Fold this sequence. Notes:
Layout: E1 4-9, E2 15-20, H1 29-33, E3 37-45, E4 57-62, E5 71-74, E6 84-91, E7 97-103, E8 109-117, E9 125-132, H2 137-146, H3 170-174, H4 197-202, H5 220-231
Amino acid sequence: MIKFLLKISGWFGGLILLFSCDSGDIYPEEYEHNEGITVYATFAFDNLNAFPDDYPLIFGAFSDKQSTPLASVRIMKPKNHEPVKVSVNNLKPDATSIMLCLTDPGRQPVFSFFEMDINVAGDSIIIPESEISLISYERIQNLVFEQYNCVSCHQGNTGAGNLLLTADKSYNELVNKVSYKNPVKNRVTPSDIGNSFVLDVLEDRNLDIAQPHTGFVTRNDDIVLLKEWIKNGCKR
Ligand code: HEC
């Protein structure tokens, strides 16, 4: 039986240490009656075209002990640019952080837009309105080049197809760089999706390529993200 320590500070002004067994759900009586706190937040999203569709976007509370949220709410695409108000309720002392993040089907976070440590020993928490940038190069690097393992081939000295997609190199290798397979186009041209060969490769419009990339990117959200980033001028 694996035992672990659960630290609960702030109760009765002291520090109580509890032992629990592996199910993690044996708590003293008082715990059951404890009304947990609520965390309220307001998010203003820019560029709603890059709002996720395939990945659930959640606002959730997390603990150090498990990767799935303890409590969460799903945020649906707002109809207009009004800020979105969300809350997670009844948070118990093991909640140590909150996140606004995209999740996979197993409810694990895959990309976080906003993170904050919380201390639930006190009162409810109100997070001031925060601007959330849905298009970021970090999101592209993580969710496209790393998640789909492009980096397994596009790394090293020159990379497959003379293209490096590792985090330190990818931006400079793509933006305003001429494609070696199809030199009439750039790999990526800011504000010009028609002159961005990376989309031809990923959407399978270039039959000449020795390594077809068919089906590498499985979520439409990630292609939409790339296109929106290009249309909006390729911010770093
Ligand atoms: C299994 C290895 C492999 C993986 C994984 C891979 N690629 Fe490639 N990629 C290649 C090879 C090989 C070429 C060159 C093909 C040729 O010369 O015809 C290439 C070419 C390209 C090109 C064209 C470069 C140019 O200048 O014309 C782009 C863009 C590209 N890959 C993007 C990606 C992206 C984005 C991913 C991930 C979604 C990815 N690749 C995953 C092997 C791979």
